[in-house]
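Job type: complex structure
Entries:
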Amino acid sequence: MAIHNREAFLDKLAGRLGRPRRTEVAPPSYSVRPQERVFQGATQDELVEKLEAQCEVIHTSFERVTLSELEDTLRRVLNGYGVSKIVSAGGPRIETSGLVDFYDQLRKEDYEVQIWDEEKGRQNVEFAEQAGAGIVFSDITLAESGTVTLFNDRYNGRSISLLPETFIAIIPKSTMVPRMTQAGRLIHEEEEKGNPVSSCVSFVTGPSNSADIEMNLIVGVHGPVKATYIVVDDL
Amino acid sequence: MSIKIGSKAYAERIQDGIDNSFMRKAVSSAQGRFRTGRLKAAEELGDWEDWRTLGEEIRSHTMENLDYYLHQLSEEVEKRGGTVFFAETAEEANAYVQEIAKKKQAKKVVKSKSMVTEEIGLNEALAESGCEVVESDLGEWILQLDEDPPSHIVTPALHKNKEQIRETFVKKKGYTKSDDPVELAAFAREQLRQDFLSADIGVTGCNFAVAESGAVTLVTNEGNARMVTSLPDTQISVMGMERIVPTWEDLEVVVSLLTRAAVGQKLTSYITALTGTRLEDEVDGPEDFHLVIVDNGRSKILGTEFQSALHCIRCAACINACPVYRHVGGHSYGSIYPGPIGAVLTPLLDGYEDHKELPYASSLCAACTEACPVKIPLHEHLIMHREIIVERERMNAKSEEIMMKGFAKWASTPAAYKMSTKMARTALKPWTKDEHIENGPGPLKGWTDQRDFPAPPKKSFREWYKHREERRNG
């Protein structure tokens, strides 16, 4: 940990700008704020509808369920993809959503399920690389773009939503916001309060894609090939 | 590689571009799709001009206070366990990265797409240190296998067709399947997975750093940047010093502008913000993080009439709108930054000597300025470059100077002017067909090779005016 060559570098910039180094800058006040107007005043249900429409654009399957229907839906989605090896984010949310028991049940039925566990170290990554599906919980969900925001941490490794062929995001309805504006603001406010941001914030919008070969859209070039969002109404 | 690509002269590069019919068709169709996507996205969003205004204000404020925000950024990165290196030159930046590679005894480096590492020639520097460097963006991987430079900022392999790509895979990687893009991409996926899992160092660029938290943000569709930053134990991010925003609130605005202006997406598949090293209880992500902040000529632009060129967010909207780029393609610019922004930036970063033609690779139609999501007055910058080239640097061709002097003399001598306008029609008669000149002589040839030139009218303006006045006066 160190900072090299900073002072001379920044002195030069200040010189070019024709003034001494600045040690304080007042927050700017911008003349317009169009970002506030997107889906302004929409209810949570309306935002879910916007999300559903956007899923068509981003090649992502969409399900909407109550908490009591979550297990059956997950099972149907996993079977639909033909997946029997699953890696899931851990932490308090799999308990509150009842997924601990569900995963136990799956294990009894010869599914291989691993909940991300720091104790297992690098083995988590190796398992994720072989898994058919990765299951995560969205922390903030952006209706406009169809994006799930993941604050990666000890329970939610970066690899879960990246390495398996299928990506499944469980979206609590309470996490719906209009767009990235609200996510950016929340992180900014936390920073101001002295609560540092996660070491990795992943905004994920559907499966991986590319248009590098003759502009043909190809899904799953590096990351997941298929994606499903499951919105849970009472979470 | 450095900012300059290839050694061919400008005229030769242009001719190569014009002769490459696949490339021209691909560029033209890509421009159409990107432009439609951008316009549709702007319309859906509404208030596009307000968004552009906000983008411009954020970028202006950041540039005016760049020293402050870079200081804040470096403090925050250090707090989060990272090391920051400020590099004045490409050589300093490369030497620092080479030193890390040596310390780590690195054999393999995986990279996600980055313009600034192209600009400083980092791949060559790492190869000198004995590292195998793998570009992991699909387009960049194809170009790396083929030892070809990129021709577009967003879709670097735009100039290649699928048959060429298949041939490269067959020759370089033993590929055996068809030229179906899905099969080609699946092969690349399989090959690259092994590289990600076995790499010692991951190198990325930086779309935007966030000063308030020390985050480095990467905007991609493929997810390769996530691979590069999740799997190897060491991450090195290299950023041009201007690629910074003050806060997360500003970040979301410029990211929204970038993804819409680039390809018409609301957001790309992945936007990843990485802050320092992984925490103690985290399993994936780097245990060692380095941020290299590169000047490499950028500070020369600060405080000048070109300062707003540093506002560029690398969306390529100007490239996709440019009629000249449409005809000549990216390689013709001889720079890793093609199109209008390339014509503005390249001479600023690398001097006029090798790039004095670039400001003339524009029709000055201002489509680029209109397309720019942060309102950089690109065509005005091109005019300023031309002024400097002619008046200060005196780099225009001697023949042009003689011709312009001759023109001035001719145009200010009424008798000569009158006689030549009268004779022009007769002199050009052998090349005139239906009031158009085809395959014209001398200086007209360059024009008529591509399109017709209107023949001089039967009657000059003066004659017409005189006749009109006579009629009016009865």
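Summary: The mean pLDDT of chain A is 96. DSSP finds seven helices and 13 strands in chain A.
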